[in-house]
Amino acid sequence: MKRPLNLSEEELQQLAKEKVENDVKRQKLGLSKNQYKKLLRQQKHEETKDEYRKSKKEKRKAAKERAQQKAETDRKENEKKPGRLSPSQQLPTGVRCLVDCEFDDLMTEREIRSLSLQITRMYSAMRTCKYNVGLEVSPVDKNLKKQFDTKVPQHKAWKNITMDSKPISQIIEESGKVEDFVYFTADTDEVIEELEEGKTYIIGGIVDKNRHKDLCVKKAKELGLKVGKLPIGKYIQISGRQVLATSHVYEICCKWFEYKDWGKAFHEVLPQRKLEGKVRKRVNRDVNDVVDEAVESEGNTAEYEDEDQDQENAESLTAN
Ligand SMILES: C[S@@+](CC[C@H](N)C(=O)[O-])C[C@H]1O[C@@H](n2cnc3c(N)ncnc32)[C@H](O)[C@@H]1O
After folding, report:
1. Where is the composition biased (Basic residues) (predicted)?
2. How many CB atoms lie within 10 A of CB 131?
3. 81: number of CA atoms within 13 Å, CB side?
4. Hey, is 49 helix, strand or coil?
5. Pairing of strands 181-184, 200-204
6. Is any atom of ligand 1 closer than 6 Å to the C-beta of 243?
7. Is the CB–ligand 1 distance for residue 212 below 6 Å?
8. 151 alpha carbon to ligand 1 midpoint, in Å?
9. For a Cys-Cys bond, which of 14, 86, 209, 304 suits 292, CB 3.0-4.6 Å?
10. Is residue 252 lining ligand 1, measured as CB closer than 6 Å?
11. Is the peptide bond before 139 cis (omega within 30 degrees of 0)?
12. Active-site residue among 100, 141, 187, 208?
C-alpha cells in the first residue's frame, strides 16, 4: 500500500482498518466500488446538507448586505456631485422648455448626431441646475430616434425628462392652452425680458447652418404661437444674426434662473469667442454658422471639443 505523506503509523493502521470495514460493508450490500463510493457521497451529502444550506444562506445574506452598503455609498457619492439633482432637490420655476424636433428630414446624418449630443448636454444641464426647468423633447422619431437608440442608448435610463414621439402641435392641442406656449426664435423683434411661470418655451431642435432661415418663426406663426428672442443685443456683442445653438438656449434659461441676470447667463454658457464676436476666417458671419462650420470641419476646433465633452457626458449619464 502506498504510504500517504505525513501520516503516522497509527493513522495508517486506522485507515487500513476503515478500508477493510468499508470493503466488508460494501460486499454485504452487494455493491461495486463505484456504487459504494456513490452511496458514501450521498450519505455525506445528507449529513452535511443542513450545514451547507445554512452557510449558503449566510453567504447570500452577506452579499446582499454588501450590495446594499455599496448602493448607499454610491447614492451618497451621487448626492455630492452636481448634476445628480432630483426635482425635489431643485427649486421650482413653473417653466418648461420643449425642444421641437420635427425637423428630422432637414438635417444631414452629422447634424442629427450633433443635435443628439446637444440634447445630451441639455439633459446634463437640467440635472445640474439648482432650479427645475422642465425639459421635454419631441418628436423623437425617425433618424433622431435611430441615433439615440444606437449611439446614446443610455437615454432610456434618463430621468425627469420627457422624450416623446408627438409633434408639438399635438402637445399644444392636448394642453388646451395655446397662450401658454412661446416659440423661441432669433427672427423676431419681440424680446423676452424674463421667463414666466406657467409658460412653455419652445426651442427649435435643429442644426441647419441657417440653411432654413425663418423656419421656426414661420412654424410658430402657423401654430398661432407667441414668439420671442433672448435679449442678446443688450448684453453681448455677436456678429451677424443672433442665432444660437439649441442647447445653448436651454442652458442660458437654466443659468438665468440661477442669476436672474441675462448677461451673466450668456457669459457663462456661450464660448468666449462668440461673446466677443470673434468669428474665424470671415467676419459678420452668423453665430450658428460658426457653430455648425466648426462641427463640420475636421480640425480640433472648440466646437469639436464641445462635442467630445457631450459624448463623454452621454457616456457618463447611463443611470442618471
Ligand atoms: C440653431 S437655431 C435654429 C435656426 C433655424 N434656422 C430657425 O429657423 O430657428 C436653434 C433654435 O434655438 C433658438 N434660438 C436660437 N437663437 C435664438 C435667440 N437669439 N433667441 C431665442 N431663441 C433662439 C430657436 O428656437 C432656434 O430655433
Report:
1. 54-63
2. 18
3. 14
4. helix
5. parallel
6. yes
7. yes
8. 25
9. 209
10. no
11. yes
12. 208
pLDDT higher than 90, residue 95:
yes
Picking from 135, 134, 133, 130, the residue whose alpha carbon sits closest to that of residue 258 is 130
Please report whether residue 23 resides in a domain.
no
Residue with grid cell 437608440, as numbered in its chain:
149
Report whether residue 242 contacts ligand 1, using a CB cutoff of 6 Å.
Answer: yes
- Residue 43 inside a domain? The answer is no
294 lines ligand 1 (CB under 6 A): no
Q: Rounded to two decimals, what is the model's pTM?
A: 0.69
Q: Is residue 61 part of a domain?
A: no
Best mutation site among 227, 243, 303 for ligand 1 pocket (most ligand atoms within 8 Å of CB):
243
**For 250-305, how does the pLDDT look when each residue is reduced to its tens digit (9 = 90+)?**
999 999 999 999 999 999 999 877 776 544 443 333 434 433 333 333 222 333 33
- Pairing of β 131-138 and β 162-163: parallel
For the CA of 212, the closest atom of ligand 1 is 6
Q: Would 215 be classed as within a structural domain?
A: yes
Residue 215 has pLDDT above 60, yes or no: yes
208 is catalytic: yes
Instruction: Report how many domains make up the chain.
Output: 1
The CA distance from 292 to 280, in Å, is: 12
Q: How confident is the model at residue 81 (pLDDT cuts 50, 70, 90)?
A: low
For residues 203 and 207, what is the distance between their CA atoms, to the nearest angstrom? Answer: 12
C-alpha span between 82 and 125 (Å, rounded): 10
The 10s digit of each residue's pLDDT in 136-168 is 999 999 999 999 999 999 999 999 999 999 999
Q: Residue 80: its pLDDT value, please?
A: 60
Domain that holds residue 110: 87-315
Ligand 1: which residue has its CA nearest to atom 21? 229
The residue ranges of DSSP E strands in 74-210, in sequence order, are 91-100, 131-138, 162-163, 181-184, 200-204
